[in-house]
Design goal:
The complex is a heterodimer of chains A (322) and B (259).
Chain A: H1 2-32, H2 34-37, H3 40-65, H4 73-89, H5 94-118, H6 123-141, E1 147-148, H7 171-189, H8 191-201, H9 203-208, H10 213-239, E2 241-242, H11 250-260, H12 272-291, H13 296-321
Helix pairs in contact in A: 1-12, 3-7, 3-8, 3-10, 3-11, 3-12, 4-5, 4-6, 4-10, 5-6, 5-10, 7-8, 8-10, 11-12, 12-13
Chain B: E1 7-18, E2 21-32, E3 36-40, H1 47-54, E4 62-67, E5 70-72, H2 77-82, E6 85-88, H3 100-108, H4 116-121, H5 125-143, H6 159-172, E7 177-181, H7 189-205, E8 209-213, H8 217-223, E9 226-231, E10 234-239, H9 241-246, H10 248-253
Parallel strand pairs in B: 3-8, 3-9, 6-7, 7-8
Antiparallel strand pairs in B: 1-2, 1-4, 4-5, 9-10
C-alpha cells in the first residue's frame, strides 16, 4: 500500500531528523574552524558540556511524552548543587552529599507531581511556581552567595581528561550514556513507558484502559526531578562551588533539546535517543559559536530560531497524520 | 448468547447533579449476565452520565452500584477497568499517533504482570507473556476484520474504522461488561450493519455482556434483549424492546418524535 510506504518514510525521517540536524551543525563548524573544532580535546569538551543538559533532557523526555512540561528543572539543578556544596562544607562524605543532592531534586519533582495531580493545576503553572520556590530555597540555603566547599574528589567526575586515561571521556559522559540507555529501555520497553505515551496521547482513553494516570504522573515528575538533582550534583562537580544562580534558563535548553529530538509538546511522542542528540546539538552549537568568535547574542538568536524550526517541523508532521 | 437471570450490574437509586443541574434523578436498573442492554432517550436524558457513573468517571451524589457482588457508591476508573468494565466513547477515544496494533496492545497492558526489570530485559518469562498478549490482539484484529490497517496510525483512518479500532481496544481488555456510547453515530448504513454484526458476535462468541447507548431505533429494537428509557434524568420505561416500543409514555416522549 502506498500509504503505509509513505508512513514508513515519515517514521524514518522522524528518526533521522535530529541526526541530520546534528550532522549539519557539526559539518558547518568543521568547515568554519576545521583544526580546532574537530580536535580530540574540543570534542571531549563538548561531550562534557552536554552532560548537564543531557541528564535534564532524559527526565524531561518522560514529562513531555506524557503531555506535560517542567519549567523548574533549571532551579532544581541550582538547588541540588547548593545542597551538595553546603553538606560537603558541613563535613558530609561525597556519596552522602551527592545522594542528598539527587534526592532533593526527586523530592521537588514529586512535589510538582503532587500539585499537578491533587490540585489539578496545569503543569506549566505548577512548575512555574516551583521554579521560583526552588530558586529561592537555593539562595536561602546558600545565604545568597556562592558556597565554597571541598570538592572531595567529585571534580574528577567532570574532568575533561579523565584520570584513568583509557576512559577517554569523562566519567560524567559515561554516566550520561549509561543512564540514557537505561531510560530508553524504561520508555520503550516497559509498561510504565507505554503508560507514559498513552497518557500523553489521550489521557481519557488512558484512564479507560485502567492506567492509574495520577500515580504515573507522580512517578514521571519525580523521575524528572531525580535527573535534575543528579545534573545539579554534576554541576557542582564541574564548578566545585555551589552557586544558587547557576543554570538560570537551563530548563529552556533542556526543553529545546527534547523538542529538537522529536518530542512533541502536545504529548505522545519523543525519544531518549532524540533528546540526547538534541542536547549534543545544543552543545556543539554553543561550542562552535565560541570557537569561531560568534558573539553570545547571535548564539542565543540561533538557538531560538532552531527551537521554532523544530516545533514547526513537528506541526507539519502532525498535520500529515491527521 | 442466551441471557441468564444472574444480575451482573445493579444500579440503585442513582442521582447525579452538576451544581444546580440535575443530570440523573433516582434511576435504578440492572444488567443481567450475557445480555445486550440498551439505554435510550432524547439528548440530555442522562445516558452518557449514567455510563460515566458505572465506570467511575463521575461520582453520583446518591445511590449505589453493585457490580460482581461488590456494592459501592462510586467506582474509580482504573478499578472499573481492572474488574472487567471496558468502555468506548461518543467521540473516538484512541491514541491517535499510535498504530492500530499498539492501540489494541495498550488495551491489554493492564493485564501484563511482570515487573519493570523483566520488561526491560524482555527475555524469558516476559517474552512468553508478551507473545501471548500479541496473539490475543491478533485474534481480536481478525475478529473485527482490521488486518489491513494493523500498522496504520489511527489518526489517519476514516471515522468508521476508528470506531472499529476503538471497539477492538475495548475488547482487548477481555471485558466482562462492555459499555458502548453511540458506537454507530455518524456511520452510513453499511458501516452500521458491520458494527451491529460485531456487537452481536462479541456478545455471542466472546460472551461479553453489553450495555449500549444508541439513537438508531431500528438497531436498538433489533439487537437488544432489554431496553431502559431515560428522559430528563428519570427512568421512563424498562423492558423488552416490544414492551418499551408499545409504551405510550415512550412514544410520546421519544419515539413519536421520529414519526
Amino acid at each position: 500500500m502506498a500509504e503505509t510506504q509513505q508512513a514508513r518514510l515519515g517514521r524514518v525521517l522522524e528518526l533521522l531528523g535530529p541526526f541530520l540536524a546534528l550532522a549539519l551543525v557539526v559539518a558547518l563548524f568543521a568547515v568554519l574552524a576545521p583544526d580546532r573544532f574537530l580536535s580530540a580535546y574540543n570534542l571531549k569538551t563538548v561531550a562534557t558540556q552536554t552532560v548537564i543538559v543531557g541528564l535534564g533532557a532524559i527526565g524531561m523526555t518522560f514529562v513531555i511524552v506524557s503531555g506535560g512540561i517542567d519549567l523548574s528543572v533549571g532551579s532544581l539543578i541550582a538547588l541540588s548543587s547548593v545542597v551538595t556544596a553546603v553538606l560537603l562544607r558541613e563535613g558530609w562524605s561525597a556519596p552522602g552529599a551527592v545522594g542528598a543532592g539527587i534526592l532533593i531534586g526527586g523530592a521537588m519533582g514529586a512535589l510538582n507531581g503532587l500539585l499537578i495531580t491533587r490540585l489539578k493545576i496545569v503543569p506549566f503553572v505548577v512548575t512555574l511556581g516551583t521554579m521560583g520556590i526552588a530558586r529561592g530555597l537555593a539562595k536561602y540555603l546558600a545565604e545568597e552567595q556562592k558556597v565554597d566547599a571541598p570538592a572531595a574528589g567529585l571534580s574528577e567526575l567532570m574532568a575533561k581528561s579523565p584520570d584513568p586515561a583509557w576512559l577517554v571521556l569523562s566519567p560524567g559522559v559515561w554516566l550520561l550514556l549509561l543512564l540514557a540507555a537505561a531510560a530508553a529501555l524504561l520508555l520503550g520497553r516497559t509498561v510504565f513507558g507505554v503508560h507514559t505515551f498513552a497518557i500523553g496521547s489521550n489521557e481519557a482513553t488512558a484512564r479507560l484502559c485502567g492506567i492509574r494516570v495520577e500515580r504515573s504522573k507522580l512517578t514521571i515528575y519525580a523521575l524528572c526531578g531525580l535527573f535534575a538533582g543528579l545534573a545539579g550534583t554534576l554541576q557542582f562537580a564541574r564548578l566545585t562551588v555551589g552557586d544558587p544562580t547557576t543554570a538560570l534558563g537551563k530548563e529552556l535548553d533542556i526543553i529545546a533539546a527534547v523538542v529538537i529530538g522529536g518530542g512533541s509538546l502536545n504529548g505522545g511522542s519523543g525519544s531518549i535517543l532524540g533528546s540526547i542528540i538534541g542536547a549534543f546539538l545544543m552543545a556543539f552549537l554553543a561550542n562552535g559559536c565560541t570557537l569561531t568568535g560568534v558573539p553570545n547574542y547571535v548564539q542565543e538568536i540561533l538557538v531560538g530560531g532552531i527551537i521554532i524550526v523544530a516545533v514547526a517541523v513537528d506541526r507539519l508532521r502532525h498535520r500529515a497524520t491527521e | 448468547m442466551a441471557t441468564s437471570d444472574e444480575v451482573l450490574l445493579d444500579v440503585k437509586g442513582i442521582s447525579l447533579a452538576f451544581g444546580k443541574v440535575q443530570a440523573i434523578s433516582d434511576v435504578s436498573f440492572d444488567i443481567c449476565k450475557g445480555e445486550i442492554r440498551s439505554i435510550i432517550g432524547p439528548n440530555g436524558a442522562g445516558k452518557t452520565s449514567m455510563l460515566n457513573c458505572i465506570n467511575g468517571f463521575y461520582q453520583p451524589q446518591r445511590g449505589e452500584i453493585t457490580y460482581l457482588g461488590k456494592t459501592r457508591r462510586a467506582m474509580r476508573p482504573h478499578e472499573a477497568a481492572r474488574r472487567g468494565i471496558a468502555r468506548t466513547f461518543q467521540n473516538v477515544a484512541l491514541f491517535k499517533g499510535m498504530s492500530t496494533l499498539d492501540n489494541i496492545l495498550t488495551g491489554r497492558m493492564m493485564q501484563m504482570k511482570r515487573g519493570l526489570l523483566w520488561q526491560a530485559l524482555y527475555w524469558g518469562p516476559n517474552q512468553r507473556e508478551e507473545i501471548e498478549h500479541r496473539k490475543r490482539c491478533e485474534h481480536i484484529i481478525d475478529f473485527l476484520e482490521i488486518q489491513a490497517i494493523r500498522r496504520t496510525p489511527v489518526g489517519r483512518l476514516p471515522y468508521g474504522l476508528q470506531k472499529r479500532v476503538e471497539l477492538a481496544r475495548a475488547l482487548a481488555m477481555e471485558p466482562t461488561l462492555l459499555l458502548l456510547d453511540e458506537p454507530m453515530a455518524g456511520m452510513n448504513v453499511e458501516e452500521k450493519e458491520d458494527m451491529c454484526r460485531f456487537i452481536l458476535d462479541a456478545n455471542d462468541q466472546l460472551g461479553t455482556t453489553i450495555c449500549l447507548i444508541e439513537h438508531d431505533m431500528g438497531v436498538v429494537m433489533d439487537i437488544s434483549h432489554r431496553v431502559v428509557v431515560l428522559d430528563h434524568g428519570s427512568k421512563l420505561a424498562d423492558g423488552t424492546p416490544e414492551v418499551v416500543g408499545a409504551d405510550q409514555h415512550v412514544i410520546d416522549a421519544y419515539l413519536g418524535v421520529e414519526g
